[in-house]
């Protein structure tokens, strides 16, 4: 299926590792011009070596002022993938203010800020666009020790719908992708314990966690004009977890 992404300028946050890195690699291979945003310079350096021609931007999206300085003059962007996130797991009774603040700053507030920058540019140019927010199966199902993480992703799903409602008249589509556990460094760190993993796998009809490519394929589809009548959706990539 031809996705028509060649020549499009795409901004990807959380580009240094996991889903974000896989998305940058796939977009680069498809001929897109990619702005890769990460807080880790070493990850960006290695990514530039893998994907010559991408534009690296090193910034901590949890810092509003630094993000404005780094991306406020990023120039015309056609497509956006809001992938950056943190997963700070704590039992509910042990949730700290720092974990709460950091989680919402990166997982939700940064999505608002970066999306505003991109959407304002699209509207000023009178250009159509697409935004994909990387949410989670945890947005709609409770998972032990994930009270803050689940809350950020539930909020992100609703933000996606409101963005779709308000940006639709400007021909900007907004959708979310909701993966199960993905075998990224973050996924491996949080789900490497066999007993813990089994409790989740037992709830997934397909009986396995996702690979990065499964999520990247969904992202590319939602960025492309092949999904031109899809907006405000939450696309599960979770092996049937929500059906259980």
UniProtKB/TrEMBL annotation:
GO MF assignments: carbonyl reductase (NADPH) activity; L-xylulose reductase (NADPH) activity
Record's catalysed reaction(s): xylitol + NADP(+) = L-xylulose + NADPH + H(+)
GO biological process: D-xylose metabolic process; glucose metabolic process; xylulose metabolic process
InterPro entries according to UniProt: L-xylulose/Carbonyl_redctase (IPR051737), NAD(P)-bd_dom_sf (IPR036291), Sc_DH/Rdtase_CS (IPR020904), SDR_fam (IPR002347)
Main subcellular location of this protein, as a coarse class: membrane
Keywords linked to the UniProt accession: Acetylation, Carbohydrate metabolism, Glucose metabolism, Membrane, Methylation, NADP, Oxidoreductase, Xylose metabolism
Domain of life per record: Eukaryota
SUPFAM superfamilies linked: NAD(P)-binding Rossmann-fold domains (SSF51735)
UniProt subunit comment: Homotetramer.
Protein name per UniProt: L-xylulose reductase
Species, as recorded: Piliocolobus tephrosceles
Lineage: Eukaryota, Metazoa, Chordata, Craniata, Vertebrata
Name of the encoding gene: DCXR
